[in-house]
Amino acid sequence: MRIIGAKTVKTRKVHNCVGCERNIPAGTKMNVVTYTDGDIFHAYWCPVCQHILDETLIEDEFIPEGEVRNGNREYWEKIRREVEDGKGKEICP
């Protein structure tokens, strides 16, 4: 796998977060990573999962789908409350 690019976007449609597998509504700022493994793929990360990855990710580490939330649900929920509730609402249930 080779990363081609990464950027933050304001989504125009619903996207599934790779880290927590939630459907994140349109209009949410998400990080998107474009990578290739023969074909080109895009991985979208919600603000909660991106916050956790910024703190814990080891460079070039592969993260299986859902692992950011499933790996430590209590910690993920704590960060979700800080990131989402701090803005006055949950991004999605």
Characterization of this structure:
- With 93 residues, this protein is of the alpha+beta class.
- It has a single domain (2-87), classed as first zn-finger domain of poly(adp-ribose) polymerase-1.
- Helices cover 28% and strands 29% of the residues.
- It is built from 3 helices and 5 strands, in the order E-E-E-E-E-H-H-H.
- The chain has helices at residues 47-56, 67-70, 73-84, and strands at 2-10, 15-16, 23-24, 29-36, 40-45.
- A 3-stranded antiparallel β-sheet has the order 1-4-5.
- A hairpin with a 3-residue loop joins strand 4 and strand 5 (40-45).
- Helix 1 (47-56) crosses helix 3 (73-84).
- The radius of gyration is 13 Å and the shape is globular.
- The model has no long low-confidence stretch (mean pLDDT 87).
Supply database-style keywords.
93 residues; alpha+beta; first zn-finger domain of poly(adp-ribose) polymerase-1; two-stranded antiparallel ribbon; 28% helix
